[in-house]
Design brief:
heterodimer, A: 172 residues, mainly alpha, 8 helices, B: 196 residues, globular
């Protein structure tokens, strides 16, 4: 049992009852919202499709292992567990992809090992950066995202550098 | 984003050739388009559900109430945002959904907020500073309890799945702070370069 289990039914009931109290035609409004939902999905579908396709091809190419190997001097220097590097790279691109890598890291090293804890922190402290940027802007007419990507990646980079360090300080 | 797209596709061919497994890349291209459709259909249901709820909340005036409560904090973060506009309300809904870990709900709220920001700030094909700040808040993790990570830790036999909580809070806070500072600094630089 956690907060998220309660959240959906509680919010649902609360909003509908609130609407009734304010004499809103909740049925008509809800169905209109659903219709808007369909057009939202159509708006974001092309960006979603493109990202899923290109990330899927990249995962299949085995490029993750190669990039991780190339980055090993940097991770060694930072004291970052090398097993977790593929997770760091995949995390901004794909939620399901990073969960798959996360599980394999936990399987290899155990969840309560140093690498397992660092992987948990990475997964728990970040979002699918590229997915968010692609989908959110796809819903608008904006084509020049300006400094959105560099700013977001600065956060992801901070997390990468800090995760190993803070886990080390906190647990060991 | 065009460089990300080109990079991913080009590197998958290059790495495919280096690793001697171009067939896998080719198979992936064909199977991933299916995955994309499946993902979209799953999302479609969830987005419709939350759009329905959102619409009721908006018409009943609930979104405005929320916006009013959080206005003092949010107008400091989003400089020049219309304090009575709709965008603020959707931003509140999106941030709340993110904190509670309702990732699926935060997307339709976030999209609604982006559209309202676009209407209020009409910057044409360029993202406004407030849009960037809002997107950056969403690319960082605001989730208070990392439920997915904790559930998977438990499944894989962790003795204390939640022990990572304090570290997650420290690192997410640091990451989002750095992102926002970067966004502030870069917004000024790009302004000088002639982009509005």
């Amino acid at each position: 049992m956690n907060v998220s289990d309660f959240a959906i039914p509680v919010i649902f009931v609360f909003v509908l009852v609130y609407g009734l109290c304010r004499k809103t035609d909740i049925f008509t409004e809800f169905t209109r919202g659903v219709k808007e939902g369909i057009s939202t999905v159509l708006d974001i579908f092309p960006a979603l499709f493109t990202l899923v396709l290109s990330v899927g091809m990249f995962r299949a190419s085995g490029g993750l292992a190669l990039i991780s190997a190339l980055l090993s001097p940097v991770t060694n220097f930072l004291g970052f567990p090398g097993e977790v590097t593929p997770l760091v790279i995949m995390r901004p691109f794909s939620g399901s992809g990073s969960v798959a890598i996360f599980e394999s890291v936990l399987g290899q090293t155990g969840p309560d090992s140093y690498a397992g804890r660092v992987a948990s922190v990475i997964l728990g402290s970040s979002e699918t950066t590229f997915y968010v940027i692609a989908v959110y802007f796809a819903a608008t007419k904006v084509r020049k995202t300006r400094h959105a990507l560099p700013s977001a990646l600065a956060g992801d980079l901070t997390l990468w550098i800090l995760s190993g360090l803070v886990v080390g300080l906190w647990f060991y | 984003m065009k460089w990300v797209f080109a990079g991913l596709v080009a590197f998958s061919l290059i790495f495919g050739i280096i690793g001697g497994d171009v067939a896998a890349v080719s198979d992936a291209a064909l199977s991933e388009v299916q995955n994309a459709i499946t993902l979209c259909l799953t999302l479609c249901g969830i987005i419709c559900l939350w759009s329905g709820i959102m619409r009721v909340a908006q018409t009943a005036g609930l979104v405005d109430v929320l916006a009013k409560v959080f206005r003092p904090i949010l107008t400091k973060l989003f400089k020049g945002i219309d304090p009575n506009g709709k965008a603020l309300g959707f931003i509140v809904l999106n941030i709340t959904a993110n904190m509670l870990g309702l990732g699926n709900a935060s997307t339709p709220f976030g999209i609604a907020a982006m559209r309202e920001l676009e209407k209020e700030e009409c910057t044409g094909e360029y993202a406004s500073n407030n849009m960037v700040i809002f997107v950056v808040l969403n690319t960082a993790s605001l989730q208070i309890i990392p439920t997915t990570a904790a559930a998977l830790r438990l499944k894989n036999g962790s003795a204390a799945p939640m022990e990572i909580l304090p570290v997650v809070w420290i690192t997410s806070l640091a990451a989002v702070t750095i992102s926002l500072i970067t966004a502030k600094i870069l917004s000024k630089q790009r302004k000088k370069a002639g982009v509005k």
